[in-house]
Design brief:
Distance between the termini: 43 Å
Order of helices and strands: EHEHEHEHHEHEEHEEEHEEHEHH
Helix content: 25-40%
Strand order of the largest sheet: 3-2-1-4-5-6-11
Number of helices: 11
CATH class of the largest domain: Alpha Beta
Family: Belongs to the NAD(P)-dependent epimerase/dehydratase family.
CATH superfamily of the largest domain: NAD(P)-binding Rossmann-like Domain
Protein name: NAD(P)-dependent oxidoreductase
Pathway: Bacterial outer membrane biogenesis; LPS O-antigen biosynthesis
Pfam family, one: Epimerase
Organism: Marivibrio halodurans
CATH topology of the largest domain: Rossmann fold
């Protein structure tokens, strides 16, 4: 049996996917580039081989593919948002576009069973309003560098599927949150959930003059990984693009309520408006997720309240994640 290659295995979605796949008995080839956390690697139980590779380097990708029998790939590795892409456009293209192209070509040559590109709802940026659900057959309208590189990767994935018969699809996800990634300082593209939880767990009063009206399809990372593995294990894919999430937007006011429930005594006061959460993104309606539900019966298991509570429990067990100095 070949291995499931999970690129970006030390990243947010990638690490959770590695854990769930290994726990399900799937042999995993877990890729990383510059970041390797030995403790996290040892914490994964199951048949996992960790390997470093520059996915934008044809030689390194070739060596990786020659050294391991690969069944298919869940491609999560990327420069992950506009805040990070804008100051380093060449690196973003190398990672998000060229890396995808090399993996697709390797998948074609080696006849991998399945290829999933983890994409983003950010490819939709020219929408009539910020409340109407975005269907899976809507033509993407990228307007920023990050969105453009991800849409380019989607197009390559579609072309390889249509031209060479590769069983491949793009999976658009939205505002992923949950362990183990908890920024220790403000990071707008991560959204209000980790920011509010981090500060509440420190016992800080959260007073924000704006941001409460910002709404997004927040997705708990275990639900995201579970959906990816459903798609990976399917006998066939009927579509070239899937949306993975709750199918509904919830506001920062809703997040504040969930954090108060998860952290008793948390003091949170948020005003109206959408900043700072829209500094690097274009507001959009919820990603409609009909194909996952109709084709596979998949819906996320956790409500926002349940997911925030579970995230808070993980943080309590891992106090270094939220203390500014990394202490306990």
């Amino acid at each position: 049996m070949g291995r499931l290659l999970v690129t970006g295995g030390m990243g947010h979605v990638g690490y959770e996917t590695v854990k769930q796949a290994a726990a399900a008995g799937i042999p995993v080839l877990a890729h990383y580039m510059s970041t390797f956390r030995a403790d996290d690697a040892r914490a994964v139980t199951g048949d996992v081989v960790w390997v470093r590779c520059d996915l934008s380097d044809p030689y390194e990708v070739g060596m990786l593919a020659a050294a391991h029998r690969i069944d298919g790939c869940i491609h999560t590795a990327a420069v992950p948002n506009d805040k990070m892409c804008k100051p380093q456009p060449h690196r973003a293209v190398q990672s998000n576009v060229n890396g995808t192209a090399l993996l697709l070509e390797t998948a074609r040559r080696q006849e991998w069973r399945r290829f999933l590109l983890v994409s983003t709802g950010s490819v939709f940026q020219d929408l009539p309003d910020a409340t109407t659900p975005v269907p899976e057959d809507r033509v993407p309208t990228p307007r920023t560098f990050y969105a453009g590189t991800k849409r380019s990767a989607e197009i390559l994935t579609e072309i390889y599927a249509e031209t060479y018969g590769l069983s491949a699809a793009s999976v658009r996800v939205s505002w992923i949150f949950g362990p183990p990634l908890v920024p220790r300082e403000f990071e707008g593209p991560r959204g209000p959930i980790p920011e509010f939880l981090r500060r509440a767990m420190r016992g800080e009063a959260i007073v924000e003059p704006s941001g409460g009206d910002f709404a997004a399809s927040f997705t708990f990372v275990p639900d995201c990984a579970a959906g990816l593995l459903v798609l990976y294990g399917a006998d066939r894919l009927a579509h070239r693009a899937y949306h993975l999430g709750s199918g509904r937007n919830q506001s920062t006011f809703d997040v504040a309520e969930a954090v108060r429930a998860a952290v008793p005594g948390a003091a949170i006061d948020v005003g109206g408006g959408t900043e700072p959460w829209t500094q690097f993104i274009v507001p959009r309606g919820p990603l409609a997720c009909e194909r996952m539900r109709e084709e596979f019966g998949f819906v996320p298991r956790h409500s926002l309240q349940e997911a925030v509570a579970a995230f808070a429990e993980w943080m309590r067990a891992n106090p270094r994640s939220y203390h500014a100095n990394g202490g306990s």
